[in-house]
Amino acid sequence: MRNSEKQETIQKKNFPLFSFIHGADLTVVFSLFSVLSVAFMYFYTESQFRYYGVPAELIEIKLINFTGTLFYLLILCLVLAQFISLFSSSKAYSKMYSKRWYTRILFIFSFLITALLVLSKSTDFFVTSEYDKAFTLLLTIGTIIVFLLIFSEITYLVRRKNSGTHNQLVWYISAGIGVLMLSSALGYFQAYFKTAYYVTTEEPRQVVVGKYNGDFIVAPVDLKKGVIKRQYGILKMESKDGKPILESMHTGKLKVEEPRIK
């Protein structure tokens, strides 16, 4: 009897950090977040292209960008779900979250990493800063840690058989919809507040506004007036004579000319 009781106790003991290995169906979870990641990248890039007057047909979704977006998207969804849950009653909140010490750490890590992500996407500080490598390393490590904790928390909630679990899943779905709405705004403001552009060395001067199939998407620019024209073209990465086609970054905000009404 003692051995059976001891064995039963061990089976009931839960290690949430690794329970996702044999817990929920990760194929379904990963597929949903994969679709959400593709939608996030599309709306984010489309809003940038729309700002510069570039057609949406030139949008590319690459595997390396998809992988990075998938990690960041998990963090954003979790943070939004945590904030949405704050509007619920304390009684309902206590039913859905266990009083585990890493739950609060999970929220703190998610909030800080998301804040850094939004700051890096909406400004060019980390692009030109000498601390870019250290920032990228810390962001990657933090993302992996939070990635594991997210699956741990989701699996823990799914395995619990109570009404609070269903409410929590609804909050995660709501957070996903909110992320899609924010992705478009984030892409637009990233282009609007951008202060560093690559420009061509030859006349007429052109500025790089994106990439397509390994080449640059460029638009004519008047550096004296600080205005980008709503035209676009494709520029090869390498010139025919082997000379560099781009010079150092132009620092300073550039405006996009107003669309002409025909």
Overview features:
262 residues; alpha+beta; 2 domains; 5-stranded mixed β-sheet; two-stranded antiparallel sheet; 8 helices; 7 strands; elongated
Protein described:
The longest helix is centred in the C-terminal third of the chain and has 30 residues, at 163-192. Residues 4-26, 95-99 and 122-131 have low confidence and may be disordered. A hairpin with a 2-residue loop joins strand 2 and strand 3. This protein has helices at 2-12, 26-52, 63-85, 90-96, 101-122, 125-128, 132-159, 163-192, and strands at residues 196-200, 206-212, 215-222, 227-228, 233-235, 246-251, 255-256. It is of the alpha+beta class and 262 residues long. The protein starts with a helix and ends in a 6-residue tail after the last strand. The protein folds into 2 domains: 15-192, no CATH class; 196-256, no CATH class. The radius of gyration is 23 Å and the shape is elongated. The strands form 2 sheets. Strands 2, 3, 4, 5 and 7 form a 5-stranded mixed sheet that branches.
